[in-house]
């Protein structure tokens, strides 16, 4: 096309040249004016027609070129889209895996619904509804997650099909060239593209059809799960509102529904394992943290026990030191009893595992520590509790279980009554346990009566609560006692802790348990006790809704939970940094001749470690609370204004603290002298540092003043110091003998360094003596003045033995006597 255009333009210019030449020749000729005028008209007409034709053909060719460009671009986009679609189809959702998971969900749904949705029996039970609800919530979460992924996959498939359809519908693709050769080539290209698009489009359609089929199944499962949960919530609500309602006939009455007890046990086992597996999968991180905390507590208690053994402080009966008797058992008991509250709404079987571990640990610690009578009481209580806990895992009611429950409740009532009436109360270490036993008697008696008269759910809640309250009370009482013992024992041996960094009144620790511990004990007991009743969630629900409700202040949305979480994380970070400072500075972490080096090594990094802990804590707190970064920017801007007006000194001290931490001009444990204040660096804080002076006082010096002052650091030179002694000897002394004597005394002193060598110099002649000066280096900075004192004593003794005198300054006073006669004459 372009060659034809070029030829036409060339022809147009040739015609113009010929026409102008003809026009010039006609002007020179002698033809008539009429002929000339006709020729001019014919020429103009032909030129206008030619111009119109050329313009039309040029426009057509331009449009054809433009269409060709759009066609090529569109075809390229079609090829790219097909490649992306092929890649996505290769890495798309695993339909086989999805079908397998849907089958598993359906199977677990059938297990969860057994006894609640199918095979309901005469009445529903609280434990069965609770276990089923936990399983269905987990299955619903998995189904919704799978539905979300399928929806996204379906959207991607639809998007690829839409893109291909849009590209194949571009009008430029249907603009054909009038050139047959060009048209033939273009049609061949379209055939190739159509051949490539067809299988991709078919695959997209097939995959979309398959995914839609899976989506229909998932949607049906989600609907069934949601409907079932709504039905269960209705049963739970009715049960909570009618907690004293009769569910069955009296224990001697007729059985309305019978199911083999073996099937009931199998159902309970299947549901219990499902709830446990699901919960562990969702809380594996917490379990790992729990394991690490147990190991950390064990290592610390073992090291504390080693210190007591080395110092022979362990008593024979471990009275007041039970926490050190079995460090692993103590670590398990303390950590599990405290950490279990971080597992929100755990399945009952997991709680039982925690309690069993606690009971085993405390039983090991009680061996040969408490009297035999109360040891037997403890074992009986634990045995009855474990049997009752096993019974509480049974989810569906039966006559067999009701009789078993009645026996257990009567045993608890009788056993508790005997202990209260005839127990050796004077031998009991924790008197509060008697209150828990009395409550157990009341609860077990109530469980027996409720069971007899058909209040199955109430009876079961009272039965497990009675035994649980005793075991939990004992576990918690001994847990806080062991914590108190651990703190007191640590205070006795950690003698170099910086109380400025860790605020705890150790003088009261070990004498009486803090009131806060009792408050936490009662709160934890109420939570664990209340979980067994149907109405607990409906009491705790409004509280959770209150703390979780969104509140708006200006443009910022927050919840009380987020604020409490922010405060909790920052509090943990601050406490952790203080604990690190507290224990890192103790002498028991150091050993042997490297003690000084270890002090400096720990102290130099302590501030950086604390800053890192607080920074990480702040980052996690901000992230957990969901505080927007733009709000932080506003706060920083406000701080900038405050710094400009009145916080320069504070910021100067904070920045100086960072400089000290990184440059390390002074470390904890260094002997320093600042503005006439000499002493040892006790701590380096964020804003200020503490220097322990030789007089016993602690000088708190801002970090800015510490950097800006003329700081003398005696420890940077390797903890050595050069000392000097000035001595005056008599003029008649043998100087060489005196020098050799002094060198010998210095060489015999082990605390004086041999390299650099000591120097004896004679300085000048004094009024009554020849003065000499001894220069020597002490190996330890703290022994410098002691060594100097001992050397003065040794030199004095050596001089006396060798008859070398140390003269004292003396002045001769001459008195002239005048005669009396002369005095009279003068008068």
Can you describe what's shown?
The chain is α+β, with helices and mostly antiparallel strands. The protein has 4 domains: 2-241; 261-532, no CATH class; 647-719, SH3 type barrels, CATH 2.30.30; 721-801, Alpha-Beta Plaits. The chain is 67% helix and 7% strand. It contains 23 helices and 10 strands. It has a 5-stranded antiparallel β-sheet. Helix 8 (327-339) crosses helix 13 (456-493) and helix 12 (432-452) runs antiparallel to helix 13 (456-493). The longest helix has 62 residues, at 180-241. The relative contact order is 0.04. The model is unreliable at 1-21, 495-511 and 586-602 (pLDDT under 50).
Concise account of the structure shown:
The protein has 827 residues and is α+β, with helices and mostly antiparallel strands.
What are the low-pLDDT stretches, counting only 5+ consecutive residues below 50? 1-21, 495-511, 586-602
Instruction: Tally the beta strands.
Output: 10
Strand content: 5-15%
The global form is flat
What about the largest sheet? 5 strands, antiparallel
Number of domains: 4
Oligomer: single chain
Number of helices, where a helix is a run of at least 4 consecutive DSSP H or I residues: 23
Organism: Pedobacter metabolipauper
Family: Belongs to the MscS (TC 1.A.23) family.
Transmembrane segments: 284-301, 322-342, 348-366, 373-390, 402-421, 433-454, 466-494, 515-540, 560-584, 605-627, 633-655
Membrane topology: Multi-pass membrane protein
List the helices and strands and how they pair.
Layout: H1 2-28, H2 33-90, H3 95-113, H4 126-168, H5 180-241, H6 261-282, H7 284-310, H8 327-339, H9 348-366, H10 372-392, H11 399-422, H12 432-452, H13 456-493, H14 515-530, H15 536-548, E1 551-553, E2 556-558, H16 560-584, H17 595-625, H18 629-645, H19 648-663, E3 671-674, E4 677-684, E5 688-693, E6 698-702, H20 703-708, E7 711-713, E8 721-729, H21 735-748, E9 759-765, E10 770-778, H22 784-801, H23 820-826
Antiparallel strand pairs: 1-2, 3-4, 3-7, 4-5, 5-6, 8-10, 9-10
Helix pairs in contact: 1-2, 2-4, 2-5, 3-4, 3-5, 4-5, 4-6, 7-8, 7-13, 8-9, 8-13, 9-10, 9-13, 10-11, 10-13, 11-12, 11-13, 12-13, 13-14, 16-17, 17-19, 21-22
């Amino acid at each position: 096309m372009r060659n034809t255009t070029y030829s036409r333009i060339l022809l147009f210019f040739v015609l113009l040249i010929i026409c102008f030449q003809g026009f010039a020749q006609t002007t020179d000729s002698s033809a008539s004016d009429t002929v000339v005028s006709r020729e001019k008209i014919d020429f103009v007409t032909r030129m206008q027609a030619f111009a119109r034709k050329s313009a039309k053909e040029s426009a057509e060719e331009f449009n054809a070129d433009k269409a060709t460009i759009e066609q090529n671009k569109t075809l390229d986009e079609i090829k790219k889209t097909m490649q992306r679609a092929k890649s996505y189809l290769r890495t798309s959702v695993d339909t086989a895996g999805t079908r397998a998971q849907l089958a598993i969900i359906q199977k677990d749904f059938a297990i969860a619904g057994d006894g609640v949705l199918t095979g309901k029996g005469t009445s529903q039970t609280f434990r069965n509804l609770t276990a089923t609800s936990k399983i269905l919530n987990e299955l619903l979460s998995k189904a919704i997650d799978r539905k979300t992924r399928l929806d996204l996959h379906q959207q991607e498939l639809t998007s690829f099909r839409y893109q291909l359809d849009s590209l194949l519908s571009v009008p430029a693709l249907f603009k054909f060239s009038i050139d047959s050769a060009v048209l033939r080539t273009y049609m061949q290209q379209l055939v190739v593209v159509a051949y490539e698009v067809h299988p991709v489009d078919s695959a997209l359609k097939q995959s979309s059809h398959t995914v839609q089929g899976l989506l229909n199944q998932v949607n049906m499962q989600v609907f069934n799960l949601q409907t079932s949960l709504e039905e269960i919530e209705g049963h739970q609500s009715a049960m909570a509102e009618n907690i004293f309602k009769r569910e069955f006939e009296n224990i001697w009455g007729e059985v309305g529904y019978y199911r083999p007890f073996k099937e009931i046990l199998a159902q309970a086992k299947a549901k219990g394992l499902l709830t446990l597996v699901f919960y562990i999968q969702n809380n594996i991180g917490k379990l790992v943290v729990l394991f690490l905390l147990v190991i950390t507590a064990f290592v610390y208690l073992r090291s504390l026990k080693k210190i007591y053994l080395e110092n022979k402080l362990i008593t024979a009966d471990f009275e007041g030191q039970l926490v050190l008797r079995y460090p692993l058992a103590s670590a398990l008991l303390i950590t599990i009893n405290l950490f279990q509250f971080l597992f929100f709404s755990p399945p009952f079987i997991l709680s039982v595992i925690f309690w069993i571990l606690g009971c085993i640990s405390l039983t090991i610690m009680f061996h040969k520590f408490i009297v035999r009578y109360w040891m037997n009481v403890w074992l009986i209580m634990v045995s009855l509790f474990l049997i009752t806990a096993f019974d509480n895992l049974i989810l569906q009611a039966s006559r067999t279980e009701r009789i078993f429950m009645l026996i257990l409740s009567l045993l608890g009532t009788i056993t508790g009554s005997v202990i209260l009436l005839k127990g050796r109360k004077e031998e009991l270490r924790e008197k509060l346990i008697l209150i828990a036993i009395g409550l157990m008697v009341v609860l077990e008696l109530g469980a027996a009566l409720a069971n007899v008269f058909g209040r199955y759910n109430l009876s079961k809640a009272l039965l497990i609560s009675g035994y649980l309250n005793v075991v939990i009370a004992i576990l918690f009482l001994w847990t806080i006692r062991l914590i108190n013992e651990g703190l007191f024992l640590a205070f006795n041996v950690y003698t170099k802790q910086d109380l400025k960094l860790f605020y705890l009144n150790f003088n009261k620790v070990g004498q009486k348990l803090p009131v806060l511990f009792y408050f936490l004990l009662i709160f934890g007991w109420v939570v664990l006790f209340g979980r067994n009743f149907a109405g607990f969630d409906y009491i705790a629900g409004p509280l959770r809704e209150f703390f979780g409700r969104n509140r708006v202040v200006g443009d910022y949305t927050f919840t009380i939970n987020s604020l409490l979480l922010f405060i909790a994380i920052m509090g943990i970070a601050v406490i952790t940094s203080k604990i690190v400072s507290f224990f890192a500075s103790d002498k028991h972490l150091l050993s042997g001749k490297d003690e000084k080096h270890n002090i400096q090594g720990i102290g130099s990094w302590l501030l950086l470690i604390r800053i890192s802990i607080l920074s990480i804590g702040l980052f996690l707190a901000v992230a957990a609370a969901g505080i927007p970064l733009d709000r932080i920017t506003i706060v920083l801007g406000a701080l900038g204004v405050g710094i400009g007006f009145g916080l320069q000194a504070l910021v100067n001290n904070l920045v100086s603290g960072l400089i000290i931490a990184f440059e390390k001009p002074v470390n904890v444990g260094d002997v320093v002298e600042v503005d006439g204040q000499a002493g040892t660096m006790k701590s380096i804080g964020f804003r200020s540092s503490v220097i322990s002076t030789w007089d016993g006082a602690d000088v708190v010096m801002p970090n800015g003043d510490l950097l800006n002052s003329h700081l003398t650091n005696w420890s940077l030179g390797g903890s050595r110091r050069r000392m000097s002694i000035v001595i005056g000897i008599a003029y008649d002394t043998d100087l060489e003998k005196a020098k050799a004597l002094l060198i010998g005394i210095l060489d015999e002193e082990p605390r004086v360094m041999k390299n650099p060598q000591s120097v004896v110099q004679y300085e000048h002649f004094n009024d009554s003596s020849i003065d000499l000066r001894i220069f020597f280096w002490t190996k330890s900075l703290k022994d410098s003045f002691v060594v100097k004192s001992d050397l003065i004593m040794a030199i004095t003794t050596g001089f006396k033995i060798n008859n070398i005198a140390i003269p004292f300054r003396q002045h001769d006073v001459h008195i002239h006597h005048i005669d009396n006669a002369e005095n009279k004459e003068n008068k």
